[in-house]
Design brief:
Layout (H helix, E strand, L loop, with lengths): L1 H17 L5 E2 L7 E7 L14 H7 L10 E6 L4 E5 L5 H11 L1 E2 L7 E2 L5 H4 L15 E5 L1 H9 L3 H6 L3 E5 L6 E2 L5 E7 L8 E7 L4 E5 L12 H6 L3 E5 L20 H7 L5 H4 L2 E4 L13 H8 L3 E2 L5 E3 L1
Amino acid sequence: MRSFQILCLITTFLFFNCKKKEVETIGARDFKQYITVLGIAQDAGFPQIDCEKACCMSFYEEKESKKMVSCLGLVDLEAKKKWLFDATPDMPEQIQILKTKHLDNNNVIDGVFLTHAHIGHYTGLMHFGFEALGGDDIPIYAMPRMKTFLETNGPWSQLVSFNNIKLNGLQKDSTVNISSSLKITPLQVPHRDEFSETVGYKVKGPHKSALFIPDIDKWHLWERDIIEEVKRVDYAFIDASFFRDGELKRDMSKIPHPFTTETTTLFQNESLETKRKIYFIHFNHTNPTLKDTHPLKDSIQNLGFNFAKEGAEFEL
């Protein structure tokens, strides 16, 4: 009789344990809406293909860790939803991190906000396709030119025609409510817009807000004042592709980005409170501040600025 009772208990345990979980939230947090950093490298990642410079050899010599391509995750534990900012080549791993370390709601992702049509920012969409996930109307948020580019150019157009993704149009400066607690506003910025326009995003939560601008040509070319925009938010994840001019053996005016040194100079007379809002992101493999530790990184941090780090979380 006792053996029978034990068998029943085991059977009941296995039955309930094998049922599909409705929603699993991972970890205990004091905040319910937040951003997590899922990648910090420029489009081509780190290490970069066929790079035998000291910067990338440090990875192969096991002195430096791999860095995934620039990406933010957005999580709302109350709404039980999660989103990505940009679909990078590292998206499979980044989505898995969101699932296992933040929120498993039985959705691969509840939406992806694209910034522009450069390789590190949208090519991860291929993983939603027929040859991979075979997604079902995964929401993709894109500006008008970006949306048209995906609709009219293969292989991306197949994602649309096979209903792997569902394109949702955005307009600059027009706010989208993605949950009762989160609002997203695209901010158009000047960049090399060969195939699409380029945007950054402002994310507003119930308590705090963030700015995400991984790519821009130069701050002075933007119609907005970056100093004022940083002051209006609690966190600013901004373009730090290159540390300074001369970093590459090529004409860097053809690939304009704000050098880290330019940004720190621009903010040098601002308060420590303002400087501390800045988190540099989107580092080229040649940028010494991409490394886990570096004297130049220390010097910038000593001025009050921060560097985005994979795994970091920011309350909204």
